[in-house]
Amino acid sequence: GSAILKFSGQCLDCVFFCRCHNLQESLLSSASGYSNYRGILNWCVVMLVLSNARLFLENIIKYGILVDPIQVVSLFLKDPYSWPAACLIIVSNVFILAALYTERRLAVGTISETTGMILHLFNLTSLLIFPSASILTVTSITPVGGVLSLGTYTVLFLKLYSYMDSNKWCREIRHAKAKRMTRSYSCKYITINTNVSYPGNLTHRDMYYFIFAPTLCYQLNFPRSPRIRKRFLIRRLFEMVRGNDQKHCPKILVVCVFQWMVPSVQNSMKPFQVCINTETLTVPNHLIWLIFFYWFFHSSLNFVAELLQFGDREFYRDWWNSETVTYFWANWNIPVHKWCLRHFYKPMLRKGVNKFLAQTAVFLASAFFHEYLVSVPLKMFRLWAFMGMMAQVPLAWFVSRFLNGNYGNAAVWMSLIIGQPIAVLMYVHDYYVIHYGSTT
Ligand SMILES: CC(C)(COP(=O)(O)OP(=O)(O)OC[C@H]1O[C@@H](n2cnc3c(N)ncnc32)[C@H](O)[C@@H]1OP(=O)(O)O)[C@@H](O)C(=O)NCCC(=O)NCCS
C-alpha cells in the first residue's frame, strides 16, 4: 500500500514540475478579481510624506518647533474649556426626554397628531436655537467646546427627527392594520422577526440605545451582533487613542502635519500670499482629512458599535473610487446620507418634487448645517462653508456632463484636495483678521 502511495506521490510531483503555467490574469488587470491594494495605499502615503518632507524640514529650520504636543496636552488639562460645553451636553437630555414623552402621549392618543407635530417641531427648533444662542452669549466657551456641543446637538436634531418620523410611520401602519389593509403592507415595519413592536419601543432604554448607537436613523429592533469581540474592541480603541495597528500613529502624524501647516497659515495672512500658501496647505490639510476619516468612520464608530452590539457597520462605502460628485456624497458619510435619503430626499420625490430640485434641497440643508457648525463656534458669519457645499451642485453637473471614468475620479480627488483647503484658509484668514486686526 505504501509503495503505491509513494509512486502516486512521485507522479504528482512530476505533473507539478512539468506544468508550471495556468490560465490566469495578471494581478493588476481587473479580470483577475484581485482587490488587496493596501500596500499601494501605504506607498501613496509614504510618497506623499516624502515628497513634502523638504517643506517640512525648511519650516522647522526657519521657524523651529511651533507645535509642542506636551504643551497642547497641558493646555487642555489646565483650561477647563469643556465645562460650558459639557453643561450644554448634559442639558440636551431635556430635549431627548421631551421627544420620548411626546411620543408616549401620541401612542396612547391623549394628544392629537397635529399637537404632537407642533410639540416635536418646537422641540427640534429649540434644539438648534438653544445651543447656538448659548454659544454666542457665553464668552468663556472656546471654538473647540462650541464645535463639540453644537455637533452633539446637530446629531441629536437628526436623531430626534428620525425618531419622530419612524414612530409616525408605525402609527400609520397600526392605523392601516386596524382598517384591515393588506397584510404584507402592515407587516413591513412591525411584525416580521421583531422582538419589540410599537408602542413597546417607547422606553428610556430603547431611546438611549438609539441616542448612543452610531446611526442617525431610528428603527424598531436594530440588527444586533451576537457578542462583543474583545480583540476587535481593543484594536479599535487602540487606533482611537494611539494609532492604528500598522505602527502608524495618526496622532503624531496630525501634530507633524500641523507643524507643517502653521508657518504656511501664518504666511497666508500676508496680502497676495493667500494663493501661494493655499497650494502649500493642500497636502497637509488633505492628510488630516484622510486621517480624520479613518479615525472617525472606521475606528470610533466601529468601537461604539462593537460596545453596543450594533450590527450595521456600513459607515462608509468606496467613496475613493467616485467617478461622480454625487457618488462621493452618497458614499463617504453613510449615516448622514441614509438620513438624507430616508427623511428628506425620498419623501420629497414621493411628493412629486423633481429629482434635481430634491438633490439641490438636500445640499441646501447640508450647506446650512455645515455653516451652522463652523460660524456659530467661531462667532463669525462668512458663508464660506455654505458656498462650498452649494458649489457641489454645479460641480456635480459639470463632472457628470463632461468627465467620466478615471477623469471623473481625478476631478473628485481634485475637488477634495484643493476645494477644502480654500474654505479652511478663508476662515483662518478672517478669524486672524478679526482677532489680531491686521493681515501683515
Ligand atoms: C442628495 C442625495 C441624497 C442623493 O443621493 P443619490 O444616491 O445620488 O440619489 P439617487 O437619485 O441615486 O436615489 C437614491 C434612492 O432614491 C430612490 N429613488 C430615486 N427616484 C425615486 C422616486 N421618484 N421615488 C422614490 N424613490 C426614488 C432610488 O431608488 C434610490 O433608492 P435606494 O438607495 O434604496 O437604492 C445624496 O447626494 C446626499 O446624501 N447628499 C448630501 C450628503 C451630505 O450632505 N453629506 C454630508 C456629509 S458631511
TrEMBL record:
Membrane topology: Multi-pass membrane protein
Subcellular location, record wording: Endoplasmic reticulum membrane
This protein's record includes keyword Metal-binding: no
InterPro entries: MBOAT_fam, Oat_ACAT_DAG_ARE
Pfam families (UniProt xref): MBOAT
Domain of life of the organism encoding this protein: Eukaryota
GO term, biological process aspect, one: triglyceride biosynthetic process
Entry GO CC: endoplasmic reticulum membrane
Keyword set, alphabetical order: Acyltransferase, Endoplasmic reticulum, Membrane, Transferase, Transmembrane, Transmembrane helix
Residues passing through the membrane, by range: 40-61, 81-102, 114-135, 141-161, 356-375, 381-399, 411-429
Record-given protein name: O-acyltransferase
Active site: 370
Organism: Oreochromis niloticus (Nile tilapia)
MF terms in GO: diacylglycerol O-acyltransferase activity
Family of this protein: Belongs to the membrane-bound acyltransferase family. Sterol o-acyltransferase subfamily.
